[in-house]
Amino acid sequence: MDASHVSRHPVFCTVVPPHLLDKIARSEQLRRADAAQRTLEQDALLRTRRSVTTLRGIAPAVGTPVSDEPRRTIYDAQHRTRLPGKKVRAEGAEPTGDATVNRAYAGLGATYELFLKGFGRHSIDDSGLALDASVHYGQDYNNAFWDGQQMVFGDGDGDIFLDFTVSIDVIGHELTHGVTQYTANLEYHGQSGALNESMSDVFGSLIKQYSLDQTAQDADWLIGAGLLGPDVSGVALRSMKAPGTAYDDDELGKDPQPATMDDYVKTSQDNGGVHINSGIPNHAFYLLATELGGKAWERAGRIWYDTLTGGELASDADFKDFARLSVAAAVARYGDGGAEHQALQKAWSAVGLG
C-alpha cells in the first residue's frame, strides 16, 4: 500500500472512549475527576496534533527480505508526555525489573506472532515495521493509544483503572488500529469508525485467545478484563459475548453497547458512537466463532482478516458493506454452502444485518 493511502485518514485511537472518561470527570470524588479530566485534556491535545500530522508510510526496497522476527523497543516516558522517552528494553534483551515494561514487550510479541502465524502478516504494515511502545506515560493517565506510529500506555489512576499493560487484548486492540491504518484505513466516525474499533476488539480478543491457546468456547470474549479497579462494578471495558453488560457502576454508568441493529445508538458523541456501536459487529464475530467452534483465529478470524485486507473494503464502509464482503470472503476461502458460509449468514442475521 502506498504512503498516500496510509495517510488519508489520520486517526488517534484510544482504548477507553471519551464518553466514559467524561462520565468519570463529573465524579464527586475529586481525585477520580481530576485524573479523568487530565486524561481527556491530553487526549484532546493528541487528537488535534494527530489530525494535522501526515503519516508517511515507508515502502521497503524491492526484493528486501522481511524477517519472521519482531523488532520491539520499549521506552519509559517516566510519567512525562514527551515521546518516546528513555529506551529500556530492546529486541532480544533480558526482562527488566519493571513488570510494566515486560508486559508491553510480551504483548507486542504476542500480537506480532498471531498476525504472522495466523495470517502470514509481517508486523503492522506487512513489511516488518518495528514495534515501539512507551510505558508510564503521564500522571495517572487513564488510557492507552496508538498514535499512528507507536503504542503508548498509561499507568491508570490505580483506582478506576489499573496499569494498561495488564490486558494483552488492550495491547492487541491498539496495534490492530495500525493494521487497519495500513489496509482498509477505515474512517474514524459513524459506522466505518465503529468497524475500525470492532476490528481492534476482534483481533485483540484473538491475540489473547492465541496466547492462552483457548478455543472460542473457552474464551471470555472480554476486552480489558483486569483493567478496572477492585471497587468498580464491572468486569471489563466491553463484552463481545454480551454487549451492554461489561460494567454497571455508579462512576462509569452502564455499558451502552448494543448487540443488534434494533438498539443502534445515534449520537454525536464519540465520533458518532464508534466505541458504542462496535458492539454489533463484535457480537456477530462472537456468534460466528462460537458457531464454528475450535480456535477462533483459524476460520472466523481468517474471514475477518480477508475482508479487512482484501482491497474491496472502502474507507467509508458501513456495517452492511462489511457483512456483504465478509460473506464473499467466506465463500472465496471455504466455498459456497459450507459450514463457514452458513454460520456467517446466521451471525449477521442474528444482529439484524442478514
Task: Give the SSE map.
Blueprint: H1 3-6, E1 13-14, H2 18-24, H3 30-51, E2 72-76, E3 86-90, H4 99-119, E4 131-137, E5 144-146, E6 151-154, H5 168-182, H6 190-212, E7 222-223, E8 238-239, E9 248-249, E10 253-254, H7 270-273, H8 279-292, H9 300-309, H10 319-334, H11 339-350
Parallel strand pairs: 2-4, 4-6
Antiparallel strand pairs: 1-5, 2-3, 5-6, 7-8, 9-10
Helix pairs in contact: 2-3, 4-5, 5-6, 6-8, 8-11, 9-10, 10-11
Descriptive overview:
The protein is α+β, with helices and mostly antiparallel strands. It has 11 helices and 10 strands. The protein has a 6-stranded mixed sheet with strand order 1-5-6-4-2-3, covered by helices on one side. Strands 7-8 form a two-stranded antiparallel sheet.
Low-confidence runs: 1-8, 52-62
State the major sheet.
6 strands, mixed
Shape estimate: globular
Q: Write the element-wise H/E pattern from the N-terminal end onward.
A: HEHHEEHEEEHHEEEEHHHHH
Give the termini distance in whole angstroms.
32 Å
Could you tell me the strand content as a percent range?
A: 5-15%
Radius of gyration: 19 Å
Number of distinct helices: 11
How many strands? 10
Helix fraction, binned, reads 40-55%
How would you write the strand order of the largest sheet? 1-5-6-4-2-3
Structural class: alpha+beta
Mean pLDDT: 92
